[in-house]
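Entry 14. Structure prediction run on the chain below.
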Amino acid sequence: SSSSSSSKTLPPAALLASRIATTLRNQKDKGITCTEKFIETVVSADVPKKWEKLGDNLVLLPKSAFAKYREVWDFFPPWEHVAECLKVQRIFRQDTVSKGPKRESRAVSVHGNDSGWVEHKELGVTYGFDCSKVMFSSGNGTEKKRMGFDVRARNEVIVDLYAGIGYYSLQLLKNGNAKKVYACEWNPNSCEYLRWNIKKNNIEANRCDVLEGDNREVAPKNVADRVLLGLLPTSREAWSVAVGCLKAEKGGVCHVHECVDEGDFEKKGDEILAAMREVKPNWTARIEKVEKVKKYAPRVWHLVYDIVLRPPMKRNVGETSSSRKKLMESEGTGKTKKSHFAKVLRKHRPTLEEVRAIKRSREPVVFTGIDIGSCAQTWTPQYLLEKSPTLANAKVSAHVSSSANFDFARKNFKYETLVGRDFLQKVVRSASSLSSKAEFLYLRSLGADPRKFEPAMALQQFPELVGDVRLPSDLWDNKENALHSVVLRVSSPSVKIWLHYDAMDNVLIQLNGTKRVVLFPPKHSGDLYLKDSSSMVSDIDDSKTNDAEYPRFRHALENAQEIILQPGDCLFIPALWAHRCESGSAAPSVALNAFFRDLEKNAYPAKDAYANADPIVAKEVLANIEESIEKLKALPNQHGEFYASVASANLARAFGVDPVPTTVVDDESRGKKDNNRASVLLKAFCGAVVVAVTKAIAKKKIA
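Output returned:
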């Protein structure tokens, strides 16, 4: 009785350790004897002393909890003890947080309901989120309190550059009475939860604009009294962005979060000041306060530097005019407005069975939160240059153009052989160039000997990079002979790569910068004006030109899907889904492409360096159609029209392809030299035949 009473008064951590030790001792009736030394070793190593309790009934254990001696816990499951001692019903265990700025959670359920959704209350604010998808740190409570109650933010306009689910923004809005918050966040899950939290906390929708994307691209300029930079271990990438957000006529305060070694506090502050003064050299900048939030690691502190920046009392009219001009240029005045399409589905940490189901569905999907190694966000051009001497000294064939819109059909670029070092340095310079004569560069790495049509194997060709990457090989069932190539792609900001299709499945892994990808279903390939594997449509967003020259393309756009990839995102692109890629404007783009066969190896041509050669049977059928077109042209026009219509309708029925509307064919053929409708009708289905034949091969393979 005395022992029972004392156990109830123990702190939760001690109570949990005691309960589990007792369980290990009481196994003699099962013929199992655990020595006291063994029990002490196991309990000390694996029973957690710290955790995060989220909401009323969920606890998030650290990655190390019950991990070292897993075979013991498989035999003696500890979860009932954890649930009872910590007074919860659901238990999750954290895994390594994903690399890169999205900081996606990889927590997994180990006990109870496997839903990670919680509603966690802190300082009068309710935070709703799924702990298996996004991070939440209760350790930042003092800084949340400071934002909500201590800083004088009443009626201020705030820009939160790393808003997450609203950790600080909600405190400023609800408790600090801020007038307006612009919340920048590029994790789509966090954006979804932030919008939910705004409603849940009864905050007027017009007081918080959620700006999804890279803050270097979406953050508003010249609006803020206060800017938050809450990314750890460093917010360096946004220091200059923050200064641009401040009001030009009065400046403001930047709250800069950094992880800093003990002894380097002053040095880090001077570094931040110097960087911000470079952006506004005639402004004053000073550190008003350094706030200690918590220990981040041994001898490393999470600090917040409150930096006050003010413009000179008298405005320099010439500079203001120049700044306004730069601002207009940066906002893309006069540029084509981008179209918007249905969003590609996202899947967070899919299981192997889910991956296989996705492959069978033949739909594009973005995988998030999967472990691809340290390459996410670390693979800047500068990093590649320093990390891989092999790449730095290799000769590479780069696409170089004065236009950001690379057009394969019209060849508005040249191929230039450069040493890797020179190419990467040029890409870095192009990212900061304000010249009207700026060069745009794009690299698609080639095989070791392109003359032999060898596919690229970037990780073998540049071996220093291998340790940084874990390819998502579940997509090709870890079958080595299914992998065709691994391609390194590097480009200047804002580069658009022509609309094209690949004949094999591939996964596009975005590693630095952002990338907008617009995809078109295979059944609408007849609307894409394909010439070989590339489209004649130069710019998918130029509706005026496209409506005049490529009227059928409107139908393709109605069925398009799009996604903006962030570092760490992996986009599965099934074979024959045509796509156009556009790099974000804020930073150079670095990506890896892994191509893998969805048909047997002998179904493809032996020489195919780029994974865009049509399957052998499909190529033969296309050649036969071209021959048929020429034969039908020899007949009177009405015969050609009749038999072309019959042939195209048969193809449409057999493979579920939408027939080309007669009115569209009339519009296209009117005023053109080749007004033979037989040719127009059959050519409209040449691209669709690739899809049809490949589907037939795939069905035969499955059968």
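The first strand starts at residue 52 and ends at 54.
Filed with the rest of this week's runs.
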